[in-house]
Design brief:
The protein is α+β, with helices and mostly antiparallel strands. It has one domain. The chain contains 3 helices and 5 strands. Strand 3 and strand 4 form a beta hairpin. The model has no long low-confidence stretch (mean pLDDT 86).
Length: 98
């Protein structure tokens, strides 16, 4: 099971990238209110996939990577969220939900 660290950062593409579909606030809310999460096998750096809801109740798919040596003062690893979008059927399949 993935370690869902409270220590996270939004990658610039989730804040102002051309592919941005959600507000940074909605992405942060969804990350903090996850329903499901798991590690993607055989990824380097480690990727964590997660499903959460934004304040409107929309299901949001998210992918973060483990920033390795970066930790907060409590030892939580830094996760960098680089993908967030409304959940797709393909993403839901990763969790066995579609």
């Amino acid at each position: 099971m993935a370690d869902i660290s409270p220590n996270y950062a939004l990658h610039c593409r989730t804040i102002d990238g051309n592919g941005r579909h959600l507000s940074p606030e909605d992405v942060s809310y969804a990350w903090r209110n996850q329903l499901f999460h798991q590690n993607r096998p055989s990824t380097d750096p480690l990727q964590i996939t997660a499903l959460g809801c934004d304040p409107s109740g929309r299901m949001i798919e998210m992918v973060a990577y483990d920033a390795g040596a970066y930790q907060d003062r409590h030892g939580h690893p830094l996760r960098v969220l680089y993908h967030a979008n409304q959940a797709t059927t393909k993403f839901l399949h990763e969790f066995g939900l579609a």
